Amino acid sequence: MKPKNRRIMGAGGPDDEDNRWPPWLKPLLRERFFVQCKLHADSHKSECNMYCMDCMNGALCSLCLAYHKDHRAIQIRRSSYHDVIRVSEIQKVLDISGVQTYVINSARVVFLNERPQPRPGKGVTNTCEVCERSLLDSFRFCSLGCKIVGTSKNFQKRKKQQVAMASDSEDSYSSSSSHARYMKKNNINNENKVQSFSPSTPPPTPASYRTAKRRKGIPHRAPMGGLIIEY
């Protein structure tokens, strides 16, 4: 395979981030499709669902293709309001290994961009490495966009840092748990250790016990309360 074709297929060397993907791929993923063509708004075929990989000048309608003869054009389709492309078309110009494919309208397709999933379904054992969408076990990404992000150097570096931080956290938790088990095994109570530095309360004496138990007597009136003074 010639070097030029290797760049088109997205199989550039791992140290060449800029040439890893064909120049038309990222603009394609950012493009907005299925809008009305500004040049052919009066036509009933004015829906923009085509893209020219040579010109990279935005979404095109079928009538625009007359100005792109002998160019490589690719058709975008839609499934549940998400853009897809047929595997039979995209695999000719791009390496889509690791991206999960789906069968829609009897044709196998791949999604262009991620579709995050709030919660993976029960029993799910494999998810997209970028957006965590449920996948079959043999795939790593749910879309072409996720593959670009998930295979970039910055993403891999950040992923390794997260794994290292999780490992440090587990080690810290393990150390704390071991310390707690040691304290419990040797009947060591932290609260008792703290209290041992202060003097204990002295036991009550008989005198203090009688004083504490003594009840108040019946109150009496003042001596002058019933005295009548005559003038």
TrEMBL record:
It comes from Populus tomentosa (Chinese white poplar). Residues 188-197 have a biased composition (Polar residues). It holds the Pfam family PLATZ. PANTHER family: PLATZ TRANSCRIPTION FACTOR FAMILY PROTEIN. This is PLATZ transcription factor family protein. Residues 188-225 are annotated as: Disordered.
